[in-house]
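As a representative case, the lines below give one protein's residues and fold tokens.
***
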Amino acid sequence: MGSDQPTAVVLLSGGLDSATVLAIARRDGFRCRCVSIDYGQRHRAELECAHAVARSMESDLTVLPLDLTRIGGSALTSDAIDVPKGRSEHEIAGGIPSTYVPARNLIMLSVALAFAEVAGAADLFVGVNAVDYSGYPDCRPEFIDSFEQTANLATRAGVEAGGVEAGGGQTQGKRIEIHTPLIELTKGEIIRLGTELGVDYALTSSCYDPAEDGGACGACDSCQIRRAGFEGAGVPDPTRCA
């Protein structure tokens, strides 16, 4: 990547969606600075995967600590709540699951936005998906549109360099833009696209309750969605199960 290329901040979890998004951002000519959040998640194996994915795509990664276990309320941040397993496709699609982390994407995008403002980046990439979104309310287009508007109202970069003035008029320059290239794709379509872009999915982890050695449980909602996605894409899944 040349020094004259624009910088983008990519929220990188270590999962297959965010790995694909990083590949897309690089394809589109951005110099990528990746951000991962260490929020005390049960599936901490994903942070090691994030490092591996970033290295594979020659991108910087910053891991920021933010202990959401102090809030709890999710199977991913509280040992008192079990990760659901063995659920049917109908059950997975119905309602908000216990693996929902209260306001997680709102929090993470806010952190990434602050990072981007200091880095001089007007472009943020995130791997939210409204097709295989498993009931998470913070993966919907309505949320992303609202956050993008807020980002341009609430930051100096947004107001002075290309956002919306307090009176509602447009300023000159580039507005802060939240890129969600996967938001309308199925998991199978995401995997096919990532495969075309050379993403090494063996470096990624999707499991919500992995073994101590990082092996996937194969039964949580995320493992099942991943498995169905690879089957739909007609691509072998390199996931290592426990």
Notes: The two ends are 38 Å apart (CA to CA). Residues 163-172 have pLDDT under 50 and may be disordered. The domain at 7-233 is CATH 3.40.50.620 (Rossmann fold). The first helix runs from residue 16 to 27.
